[in-house]
Model the fold of this input.
Amino acid sequence: MNFHNVKFEASFGLFSQLPKSDMIEIAFAGRSNVGKSSLINKLFNRKNLARVSAVPGKTTTINFFRLENVRFVDLPGYGYAKVSKSEKARWAGLMEGYFNDDRQLELVVQLVDMRHAPTKDDLQMINYLIDNEFPFIIVLTKRDKLTKNQQAQRLKELENELPYFDQLTVIPVSSENGEGIDELKKIIEEVASED
Done:
């Protein structure tokens, strides 16, 4: 899989706008400001494929990217408090619509900030994925912000913080220096080749 050949396809702000699923999809989910856009850019080695912002809550649409026979789906970040009730309702409709739709969703890449315990929203999302039997992996972002000892300490703590930790695939990554990105690419290639 040549990760450089990815192309942006489209953005959708409402569930009713989403096209039907006609190929494998790999979705990226996580709370606002967890580093989804940075991870996507690092994964495809492109600076501005997904828009990065220092302001949380910037991705308010579902963004579709395509690489060969796979569609990559950048879901809007959850848990950002400073948005209106109507915006939260629109977002919830978009997310629920996406997950409840009959899509060829082969993998959810669930992002969690490695520096902190998973938020209530993170745990709610992970439990939702488990309860609905969506295949998913956990990617721990911002690994480079911790020393090796702190990383080891956080991994130990996550064993108790994440449900079913021993059954999960957990990959610490850095969008800064690329640590863990090759491991993530390998999993994506395995999922893409199963079709």
Observations:
- Residues 85-100 form the longest helix (16 residues).
- The domain at 3-193 is CATH 3.40.50.300 (Rossmann fold).
